[in-house]
Design a protein that fits this description.
With 195 residues, the protein is of the alpha/beta class. Helix content is 42%, strand content 16%. It has one domain. Strands 1-2-3-4-5-6 form a six-stranded mixed sheet. A hairpin with a 2-residue loop joins β3 and β4.
Length: 195
Amino acid sequence: MWSINEFCEPLDHEFSGIEPLPEHLRGVRLDEDWGLKQHCGRRELKSVDFLIQTKTGYYFLEFTDIGRQIDAMLTKIDTIKESSDLPKSLKREITKKLRSDVSSEARDKYLQTCQIFSHAQKQLCDVPQLSTGCKFLIVYAPLNQHLSSSDIEIYRFLDYMKNSLTTAIPDDMFQKVEIITLNMFLKHFTVQPLA
């Protein structure tokens, strides 16, 4: 029987133009063709990038360039709000849908990662009990000066997203969510080998 440690590799944030993470920071790769998701035959499911262990427990880790996604969404919302062709109620509906889409993608990755771990427990010998979830850590790339939205607008949406995820994921499957910068991750998280 395979060990979950066979899927450990150095963490890769995949942010272009940003220095790679130190080699000693390792986690269980979930996505990609060689990841745990593929091994479990659950390629169709969405997943976070890694499972990591810290002093405070396990985290599902997602690296994202969310600033760019939020900026594009906020730009669309501004365009919709400025449109005189649409009734106000339709503008509100479209705006709400755009806002929820960004949060929904993160929620789906979290919940479907729990499903992957449910299957992994049947196929690997040393999988932590995570089918009912753990902590969720979203690490985003440094905000770019070329974004049309202000940093304040993006931070406000990140706060909205954190609250939305907290209420959208069932309590029995969820401990907490943190949305932080890459620099905060490097300063405040000590990634440990999986136990």
